[in-house]
């Protein structure tokens, strides 16, 4: 097998570590910048590096790991499929309509290529999550009544680094929904084997106007003197406008009529990676939190709460190793597919449409009342 990694950021490091744990060599790294490619290759003992994928003979490549921002995914995916290369792509698969249409049309034209693409939905691979799926799909669980949860992180609480996630000119018009919401919605679909229909969505942008100092963002203050202090006493603060959401509250139902809701926030102080999901069924309930990944809770009426423990996993790193093992060994039962990626795009678009409709209705009502 001959392996290429596209990208050299946070996600690429997890792929490298998991590949090494699996025992797979990495032949090439490709980034948009030759110096970053050289540095990543040196740090990870990868022999070949380049800033242009055209410098690689793709007919010799068997597996491609795409670890770039989503607006770059589509072209790399199609290039890989044209050369019959298996692809493991970071989520979300796509965030732009033109990329959605491009990949969808390609896979309709070449249906045999569908099995060459898998998406990084590593949360599926926790021991507790796999056990949760087994419980939910057993006769002992009964009909699913509701799905609820949240996904809260603090990474974008100010001050925060300005990066591609905020650039709506080339990325999604959403952030919390596409970045962390896709993990939650994929988990719902994976666990319940059901499809999601969005009913309502409300967004929060806590600081639309911000001060940018280098790559770091600070909250804008109406008091100019305070802004200058935040900007480290530089004479003219650079003011930017952020258009996408920090948080979202979403109500949904499934096609089998289970009701659901989720709160997503990237500005929740103290929350490193708080993905919580609870599913209530006809005969019992089950819940799990990624920050306590080795514990799974099961509730039964008049019998209290049973706690299942999974003590031998190391958490997030293990999920990547297991996912990559399944990817290389063609064990597809738990892997997310291109179809899953396209379905998650549809869910995100429905969320944005309903948020926009609600915002327009609110603005119209407010105008009429005043």
Describe this structure in words.
The protein is an alpha/beta fold. It has two domains: 118 residues, Rossmann fold, CATH 3.40.50; 180 residues, Dihydrodipicolinate Reductase, domain 2. An eight-stranded mixed sheet has the order 9-13-14-7-15-16-17-18. The protein has a seven-stranded mixed sheet with strand order 3-2-1-4-5-6-19, sandwiched between helices. A hairpin with a 2-residue loop joins β10 and β11. The radius of gyration is 22 Å and the shape is globular.
Beginning-to-end CA distance, first to last residue = 67 Å
- What is the overall silhouette? globular
- The Rg value, from CA coordinates, equals 22 Å
* Strand portion: 25-35%
Question: Average pLDDT value?
Answer: 92
The assigned CATH architecture of the largest domain is 2-Layer Sandwich
> Order of strands in the sheet with the most strands?
9-13-14-7-15-16-17-18
Question: How many structural units, i.e. domains?
Answer: 2
Q: In the CATH scheme, what's the topology name of the largest domain?
A: Dihydrodipicolinate Reductase, domain 2
> Could you say which structural class the secondary elements and strand pairing correspond to?
alpha/beta
* The CATH top-level class label of the largest domain: Alpha Beta
Instruction: Write down the secondary-structure element order.
Output: EHEHEEHEHEHEEHEEEHEEEEEEEHEH
> If helices are DSSP runs of H or I spanning 4 or more residues, what is the number of helices?
9
Give the % helix: 25-40%
Please mark out the parts with pLDDT under 50 across 5 or more consecutive residues, or reply none. none
Name of the CATH homologous superfamily of the largest domain: Dihydrodipicolinate Reductase, domain 2
User: How is the main sheet built?
Assistant: 8 strands, mixed
Number of strands: 19
